[in-house]
Write a structure and sequence with these properties.
432 residues, alpha/beta, TIM Barrel, Immunoglobulin-like, eight-stranded parallel β-barrel, globular
Length: 432
């Protein structure tokens, strides 16, 4: 873990935007007009998927993947000019939010500026040809980080963008040497003190398979030496496995609790129900009550919360990365009031620095707690929408559900959960 990483990052909410598909116009100007609405959701950081020119050779789809970058130092003209990009970031800052951009340093498009000017900086197959280490990524070719000239170029590029934005989400960060990330962080700090570093860490099976093939693949524990935040992919398969019926709820819970012992004290995980690489949560969680519970649990978890644009309206369609595929803003329902309330709750200082525990109860109910210094926050989340009597260990009396302000009666240390999510704050110094 980066020693200077602040636990306060656990109290933040990040909103992910793919500019092309965010609006019919698909440009910076249109996104700028939506910033007030995004802010009202309760958002601290806007993360823009890659906004650089896209290569034309070996494109997937009609417009190509934003992760097949042609030039790291330019802006995709389909989205607007560099000045328009600066204006967008300025407007984000004016609303008290930060902006981070995607950094895709493992690979480029086959017709990238770097291929044309520095072909020696690229990985070669046994046949001496440009290639990549992940077979299905047919629209990109991998860079070779044994080339120190590449390090200097990439770090200078980061410093260029750090003059504008507040941080970086680093695509497949485990495939790039840790030493590079450590050096990059150190040098960028001189341009953007407090720069935010988010690593797209990978699923354990991907790491195992990549290492078995003789390639580098950093673990989350290694990445935390340089990065502030890592993806939740170390346990995400258990979450989706529960939804798909492949494992029980307690298996997922067990993995959550293990994170508290595996990672450093100031670890920050990016918590999400969906992202641009995964199916929409709504396509799997069809029941609205269950969705409210999962969202409440998402915000309650120890870590930074991620929303993917369109999630707030119950969009069940995962937009294509390769074609124009606008978010379906008239989805199933409007979750804005709930998200705004959860955002307010998440600002409680307890979420940043606490002992965190989760347990799975009968009737598919999650019981989670944040505890520290005589304070406690209790969350009850019926992810299947079922009711049950739950032991909460609070003194008998009437409490307020922080989500909807409804009265919750504690009798003999227990409450009745009727299927809706509940978050309670225990009186300070109450024995529990």
């Amino acid at each position: 873990m980066a020693k200077q990483t602040s636990k306060e990052l656990r109290s933040l909410v990040m909103y992910s935007v793919f500019v092309r598909n965010h609006s019919e116009e698909g440009n910076f100007s249109a996104l700028r007009t939506d910033l007030d609405r995004i802010q009202r959701l309760g958002v601290d950081i806007i993360w823009l998927l890659p906004a650089h020119p896209i290569g034309k050779i070996a494109r997937k789809g009609t417009l190509g993947s934003p992760y097949a970058i042609q030039d790291y130092r330019k802006i995709n003209p389909e989205y607007g000019s560099l000045d328009e990009f600066r204006s967008l970031v300025d407007e984000i800052h004016a609303r008290g939010m930060k902006c981070i951009i995607d950094v895709v340093y493992n690979h480029t498009s086959p017709d990238s500026w770097l291929v044309q000017h520095h072909p020696e900086w690229f990985y070669r197959t046994k046949d001496g040809l440009f290639g990549n280490k992940v077979g299905e990524w047919l629209d990109v070719i991998d860079l070779d980080y044994s080339q120190r000239g590449l390090w200097e170029y990439q770090i200078e590029t980061l410093k260029q963008w750090a003059e504008i934005v507040d941080g970086f989400r680093c695509d497949v960060a485990p495939l790039i040497p840790l030493e590079f990330w450590l050096k990059a962080r150190q040098q960028v700090e001189s341009v953007r003190p407090g720069c935010i570093w988010l690593a797209e860490s990978v699923e354990p099976l991907f790491t195992i398979e990549n290492r078995a093939r003789g390639f580098l693949s950093l673990s989350d524990s290694e990445l935390y030496q340089s990065f502030d935040i890592c993806y939740d992919y170390d346990i995400f398969a258990y979450f989706r496995g529960y939804l798909d019926g492949r494992n029980i709820l307690s298996s997922y819970v067990e993995k959550i609790n293990q994170q508290e012992a595996i990672y450093p004290d100031n670890y920050v995980k990016l918590r999400y129900l969906e992202n641009h690489d995964q199916a929409r949560a709504k396509s799997i969680i069809s029941d609205e009550t269950s969705m409210r519970n999962w969202l409440a649990f998402l915000y309650f978890q120890k870590g930074m919360t991620l929303l993917y644009a369109g999630q707030e309206v119950g969009d069940d369609h995962r937009p294509s990365l390769f074609d124009k595929d606008t978010v379906q803003w008239r989805g199933g329902y409007d979750l804005t009031p709930l998200l705004a309330r959860l955002y307010t709750i998440k600002k409680n200082p307890l979420f940043a620095n606490s002992r965190y525990e989760v347990c799975a109860l009968p009737n598919e109910i999650l019981h989670a707690t944040h505890s520290a210094s005589g304070s406690q926050m209790i969350g009850i989340f019926s992810v299947s929408g079922r009711s049950g009597v739950i032991k909460v260990g609070l003194t008998d009396g009437v409490y307020r559900n922080l989500i909807d302000n409804q009265e919750i009666l504690v009798r003999e240390g227990s409450i009745l959960c009727m299927g809706e999510p509940i978050i309670l704050e225990a009186p300070k110094n109450q024995n529990y």
